[in-house]
Design a protein that fits this description.
Radius of gyration: 12 Å
Strand content: 5-15%
Number of domains: 1
Number of helices: 4
Largest sheet: 2 strands, antiparallel
Strand order of the largest sheet: 1-2
Order of helices and strands: HHEEHH
CATH superfamily: Winged helix-like DNA-binding domain superfamily/Winged helix DNA-binding domain
CATH class: Mainly Alpha
Length: 73
């Protein structure tokens, strides 16, 4: 069963999304393409060149990723 809030993000995408939880977050250097992916998924928005996590992105963080759970096992 698939839910609209289930995302199979890569670890670098998850790290960028987690980093955006804090205002004025310091993102890892190679995040331009990662941010573009997250914006396309609706998890991040960019206003005045400043990325911010969306409510959909916060829900995705709370739910986690099955891909990450498999990697931890």
């Amino acid at each position: 069963m698939s839910d609209e809030s289930d995302f199979d993000l890569r670890p670098d995408q998850w790290e960028a999304l987690k980093a955006l939880r804090a205002p004025f977050a310091r993102l890892p250097a190679p995040t331009r393409f990662v941010l573009e992916d997250l914006v396309a998924l609706g998890l991040v928005s960019v206003n005045d060149r400043v990325p911010a996590i969306t409510s959909k992105g916060r829900k995705a963080l709370v739910r986690g990723s099955f891909c990450l759970l498999d990697a931890a096992a």
